[in-house]
Design goal:
The chain has about 220 residues and is of the alpha+beta class. It folds into 2 domains: about 100 residues, 3-Layer(aba) Sandwich (Rossmann fold), CATH 3.40.50.300; about 80 residues, no CATH class. About 40% of the residues lie in helices and about 20% in strands. It is built from 8 helices and 8 strands. The strands form 3 sheets. Strands 6-7-5-8 form a 4-stranded antiparallel sheet. A two-stranded parallel ribbon has the order 1-2. Helix 3 packs parallel to helix 4. It is elongated. The two termini are about 40 Å apart. The model has no long low-confidence stretch (mean pLDDT about 85).
């Protein structure tokens, strides 16, 4: 299912489902009815007359009704209003919890990814730079702000990403803060300094990784 999904727009939703059903031996009529209720999808007009959000719901229904083992979604929430997005997410979550199934979402909407995903991957120019459980990733990244009595500089390490420096203050992202010695390393680098740490959202982590990837590419 993709952002520009092509549908047989001369058919109604009912007609499209009736057309698709014979192609899939695993088609589940009961699940189809349940998803129609969840998605509030009862329109009988030709698909070409439906709003973009309703078309996306029809595409999702057609993609889930036969219980596929793998569902691939490409920017499924782009341009949709909040209500339609919530209906699509509810349908996906209910489907994901019903037996062994993989749902792969490719999206720039990181807030929605954070709501949905168990695992995330970060791809840059076709290279997979990171693949990790969301809870592990969120635990591993922390923003650290250090205020010292004298001007400070950030030591060069593989796990600290500089965000800003101004006199006695330095701010960086620790990408390995879940390590047992994380606090000890910071204290050793900045003795007698005031240290504050704050968690990051998935979006902030993505921005930090994107900046690091861009910096390496430029170098």
């Amino acid at each position: 299912m993709s952002e520009g999904q092509e549908l047989p727009d001369w058919l109604s939703t009912d007609g499209m489902l009736a057309y698709l059903r014979p192609f899939y031996p695993t088609w589940d009529d009961a699940l189809c009815r349940t998803l129609r209720t969840v998605l509030d999808l009862s329109a009988r007009e030709p698909i070409r007359t439906l709003s973009r959000g309703t078309r996306m719901k029809a595409a999702l229904l057609a993609s889930l009704a036969y219980r596929p083992e793998l569902v691939i979604l490409d920017e499924p929430f782009s341009g949709l209003d909040s209500l339609v997005r919530d209906e699509l997410i509810r349908a996906l979550l209910e489907q994901a919890g019903d037996g062994p199934r993989t749902i792969l979402i490719s999206s720039h909407d990181i807030a929605e990814v954070e709501r949905l995903a168990d695992w995330v991957g970060f791809i840059d120019r076709g290279r997979l730079l990171l693949a990790e459980r969301v809870d592990s990733l969120l635990a591993r990244f922390r923003r650290v702000e250090v205020t010292a009595e004298d001007p400070v500089a950030l030591p060069v390490t593989d796990t600290w990403l500089l965000e800003g420096m101004a006199g006695r203050m330095v701010r960086f992202i620790d990408t390995d803060h879940a390590a047992p010695d994380a606090a000890t390393r910071i204290e050793a680098a900045f003795p007698a300094a005031i240290v504050q740490t704050t968690p990051l959202s998935l979006r902030e982590i993505f921005v930090a990784l994107a900046r690091r990837a861009a910096g390496k590419e430029a170098a």
